[in-house]
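Predict the 3D structure for this chain.
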Amino acid sequence: MSVPLKDIILYAVTLFVFLSVFLLVQHEIRAAWQLRRGIDNGTKYPGFESLRDKFLKRPEMSRPVSPVKPPPGSISVPPAGGIIFKDHKPEEIIHEINEKELEYAREREAAKEEVGEKEVEIEEKELELTEQDQKEEEQQYPKEQKGLLMCNGSRVDSEIIYWKVVPGDRTYESPITPHHADHHDKYLTFEYDAGGWNNVRMGMECLLVIAHAMGRTLVVPPQQHLYLLGVNHQDKGDEKPHDEMGFEDFFDLDLLRSHQGLHIMHMEEFLAKEGVSGGLHGELPPHNSSEAWGAGLWHYLKKVSDVRPIWAGKYVAFPAQAGGDFEFSQAHIKTNETLQQRMKAFGGDRSPVFYDKTLQEAHHMHFPADPEYRLLQHHYAFAFFADHAMQSFYRRFVRDFMRYKDEIQCAGHRLVQAVREEARAVAPHFHGDYYALHIRRGDFQFKDVKISAQEIVDNLHYPNGTAMIPVGAMVYISTDDPDGLCKNCLVQRKPCNTYASPKPPGCPEDTSWKAFIKAGWKIRFLRDFERKGVLSDVNPNTIGMVESIVCSRATLFAGTYFSTFTGYIHRLRGYHGLGESTYYHHKKFLMNLQMKKSVGHGFSREWRAGW
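Done. Predicted structure below.
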């Protein structure tokens, strides 16, 4: 008896549907079981596979790309010495900004002091969330929880934790771009800033925000020689000691990759996928290798990129959502008075760059480290979003995901505990509370704020004359001059010890810390705790980050104006709710952080808008 053809087809379709449903249910049960097992085992990011594991599983990436003879006209391999820097003499290095930027910064600060109360009130009104906005945010994120810190495989409930877990944030995608459809074919590459670490960090925060907003894959550069971070070290997993540092030495790449709206890859993976395959205008990387490095790599990326934005001194304005031709221009702003006010307050005297279809469709966007491409400003003052909720999200995004990795945070946790223990021993009446100062000397180019210990003692008083740091308190001093000699201090490129008295500004007559002791303070330096073995296993290049954590938890902190290290401590203290007990120890800038104005731009200080 023959079976009709239509019955055979019906039977086959039924069987196919049944098997599909069975496999789908089986997959969901297994995923749920794995997720539950990850939670039970205390996995840091349950159900999340590390970047390294995924990277090694890629067959095309687990095999090294053999160098071949470069074709005619291609870029040569970088020299053995790695990145080529300009031939500066040590005393000529200026790692913050150049003289033109310095003069502009000083003029801008002077202008700020003359800003009228009316203009300040306008800025406050337009930039701060309204009461209704706050209620809507509270309804949208009702169960914000304290973040997680893992030290040596165990969860630690520490006072240093400022980051939070906000429902909905981890899955948030930028509404501006068709993100998941395009991220695999849109890239953002960059070079590390040539300045000090906090200048590097500021630039990377800006790039992280715009990469997410644009729906681009952020490509992490390889390790290199970073200014002032060249101590030879061998971290866990390193085959041999080295002095190069990079993105992953400071930030948790797995944490960033766990964000569903952000996509990140290593430079090696990018070059394997786009470079050696000829996907970058047919140009091959140096030696046709995915392991290109140094000056040769940077020159190659500049050559093959589609867009190299010159956005130094400007800000980027993003629309609320993608629409047709990304309509967001001066014409659109003229019809929206509220938007005009917000952009005026946000941008100040800067001009906006409007994110448009041309920028969106570029395959490869690259940010070199040359001065005209430099992003020496804070992320919350660089990227403007027409949607106020997006502006708030990106502040949380940097706070909760672009934070120092747990190894650094755990070292900070140990040091804070040790400092509090010392405070209880030497200043028992303060019950473990301590005060902190950041005193920048050395090659710092802003000579006016390099002052003596006595001047700092004299300056640190409230308007009513009360001392900010009481007699008998323990004071933690973070400085590049723990010996109190100012031996690397320069004025007009000449060492301070070559000047006779009276010495010029920037060369304190008395370089010692004796005035602090005379004021009745119990002073302590990093080395006092290093001798006790508190940081014996810490990469020496991350000590500055660890010290910033200690300063962020002090009862009161006073830092050095113009220093981006002090600036970041101010932001960390803002995250902790301690922003208003943060000051500068120079008389001119003492109460600068208590001014009503809540947002500004440039590198010289941080603002309340950041938290």
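The first helix runs from residue 5 to 40.
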